[in-house]
Each structure stands twice: as structure tokens, then as C-alpha cells.
Amino acid sequence: MSNALIIVDVQNDFCEGGSLAVAGGAGVAAGISRLLATEPDRWDHVVATKDYHIDPGLHFGNPPDYVSTWPRHCVVGTPGSEFHPELATDRIEAIFHKGEYSAAYSGFEGHAENGEGLADWLRRHGVDRVDVVGIATDHCVRATALDAAREGFATAVLLELTAAVAPDTTDVALRALDGAGITMHGAPVIRAA
Predict the structure, then answer these.
(1) Would you say 92 and 48 are in contact if contact means Cβ atoms under 8 Å apart?
(2) Active site residues
(3) CA 100, CA 104: separation in Å to the nearest integer?
(4) How far separated are the first and last CA of the chain, in Å rounded?
(5) Is the peptide bond before 63 cis (omega within 30 degrees of 0)?
(6) pTM (2 decimals)?
(7) Which residues are CB-contacts of 19 (< 8 A; sequence separation ≥ 6)?
(8) How far apart (Å, rounded) are the C-alpha atoms in residues 23 and 116?
(9) What is the C-alpha to C-alpha distance for residues 160 and 35, in angstroms, rounded to an integer?
(10) Model pLDDT for residues 71-124, shown as the tens digit of each residue
């Protein structure tokens, strides 16, 4: 069996300067790149997810409530949907797009270009353990890690390589991860309340 790194939504719109920026996002991108460079043999496989909105309906709000509706972000064909330039992408073997026509938080809701889902891709490559990093700790990282555990993968979140939206939602997320038996390392980057 083998292990994989899942990089969640390290995209321009979720980093500083983006339409739905999370403080520390650019630093997370750079940190993931450093780790991949300094520990090239740590993971057998590296995959990534992308928020990839075409017309996600009520996911975009005007005005947004920042609970279930959000500003326009990661629209297909815009610079905001691209990976942040600080993220090294040369090791990424597959990208799983999610949220084209509805809200999607977990990378396990996404699909590769050929339509294959993340769980099926990981199983086809003999993966039994995953580490999850990316943006945001309290939303898409949380959902992806919880689904990884539900799918039967031994799951860890490298919190020092995640950026969180807010302290209160991060506390809820960390309790959920702990309750699901997910291993956590370090602490997430959280903006001041």
C-alpha cells in the first residue's frame, strides 16, 4: 500500500488578494512547496483539488452571508481559479475539480478530467493513507479530511500547512476531525478575530 498528499484548493482566490482571501494562504502555498522539495520521498502520490465554479447557483451570494453563500470565487477561466504561483505543481499527478454547478467543499465530491472521483483514483493507485493540506482548514480541508476517513483511508491533517478562516469555525472543525479519529499535526494559520 502507499500514501498520498492531498492539496486542497490552494488557488489565487483563496490567497491574499483573491476574492475570498484567507490570511496566510500564500504562506501555505509556499510551505507545501518547501515540504515537497525537502522531503521528496515522503509521499508516493500527490494530488490536488480545485474549486471550479461555472454556475454554482446559491453558492454565490449578493450580498454573501459567509455561512452558506460566498462572494464569487474560483470561476472557471479566471485567474482566481488557478493554483497560487507559490505552489509547486510539478508533483501533482491528478487534479479533482469540484463545484461546477453546486456548492462542493470536499475534494471527494470532485472529479478528474476523465470523470474519475478522488476515492477511486486513490484506491486504483493502492493508497491507504493520506495527508491533507491546503485552504481552508475550517471548510474544504475539514470536509476533505472527514470524507477521506469515511472512505476508509488512514487520514492526517498537517495543520501547519493549512490556513483557516476564523477561530470559532476552526474550533468546530478541529473537534470534528478529532471525533472522526483523524490525526492532526501542528496548528493552523488563523487570522486574528
Answers:
(1) yes
(2) 9, 98, 140
(3) 8
(4) 42
(5) yes
(6) 0.96
(7) 13, 71, 72, 73, 80
(8) 32
(9) 11
(10) 999 999 999 999 999 999 999 999 999 999 999 999 999 999 999 999 999 999
